[in-house]
Amino acid sequence: MNEMVTIPREEYDRLRAAAEDLADLQSYDRAKAALGAGGDELIPSDYANRLLDGENPLRVYRDLRGLTQATLAERADVNRVTVAEIETGRKQGSIATLRALAGALDITLDDLTE
């Protein structure tokens, strides 16, 4: 059976705003729980801004971890020149190489490719 309720527009707008606030609070709680469980990582704003400005993610995450190109290459078992070429955009890198680099940086493959 169709039931209809009529409320003033002002009340409708207030209820919608409250529902949006609740959704925001729930998202915050989920993010906070994931962070507390070690499922997420906070990235300092300087590094986040570099990513947003379009800087190569490999370089940004390598800097965030405090690694040299040589150290990262050694940990990922790839050539240091390959790391440099990916960071400068001369090469894209194969999926296997990017996966190895992401693993060495403790990030996801998506973090390097998005």
From TrEMBL:
The keyword Isomerase does not apply. The keyword GTP-binding does not apply. It holds the Pfam family HTH_3. GO terms for molecular function: DNA binding. SMART domains: HTH_XRE. Keywords: Plasmid. Residues 58-112 form the HTH cro/C1-type domain. Transmembrane segments: none annotated. InterPro entries: Cro/C1-type_HTH (IPR001387), Lambda_DNA-bd_dom_sf (IPR010982). This is Helix-turn-helix transcriptional regulator.
